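Record 1 of the preview.
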Amino acid sequence: MNLVSNATEAMETTGGGVLSIEASHVLSEDSLQINLKDTGPGIPQENIPKLFEPFFTTKKKGKGVGLGLSVAIPLLFLHSLIASRSRVLIQILDQQSAALVVGRNGAG
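->
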């Protein structure tokens, strides 16, 4: 949900846009892949390594504290490891696209 919220807020800065979410079950890898792509301004290349750091934000003061991804992602990893012994892979595909893959051990 945090990724959706971030994309929506980023698109607001450019007057709106489109967020596409595609989910697919990759049978050969027994994994779930979720792709997100938006038409917002994109993530500057220099910010990509900082995306999961606690308190990193590009939002204006009062709009966010930078804890969304730094809290949500570890919870996702923890849940997948405990609940289903799955692997989680997060890929930043380009400035406007990300993929989240959840698969069984050895997959994804």
